[in-house]
Design goal:
This is Transposase IS66 family protein. The chain contains five helices and no strands. The mean pLDDT is about 80.
């Protein structure tokens, strides 16, 4: 078996593709918003969450978060796939 860096290359590939798109973000604030969202999605993936389900869960719960602890509880590393299941979102749990 030969050593390779395929895992590292695969992990950064979406960033390299996205880099060209970020050139056209329009404003520094738009670029920052894109980077923040991208970071959130990649962190969700790294923590075993399906990004679409995580974002639906986040956007459903975020308006009700009032404290730092409640915001932190919504971070991808604090949740599991069972937390962001679509059934939980639909039932309001």
């Amino acid at each position: 078996m030969t050593p390779d860096n395929n895992l590292a290359e695969n992990a950064i590939r979406p960033f390299v593709v996205g880099r060209k798109n970020w050139m056209f973000a329009g404003t520094p604030k738009g670029a920052r918003a894109s980077a923040d969202l991208y970071s959130l999605i990649e962190t969700a993936k790294a923590n075993g969450l399906e990004p679409y389900r995580y974002l639906r869960y986040l956007f459903e719960k975020l308006p009700f978060a009032m404290s730092t602890e409640e915001y932190q509880a919504l971070l991808p590393m604090r949740l599991g796939p069972e937390d962001v299941a679509l059934k939980n979102i639909a039932s309001g749990v």
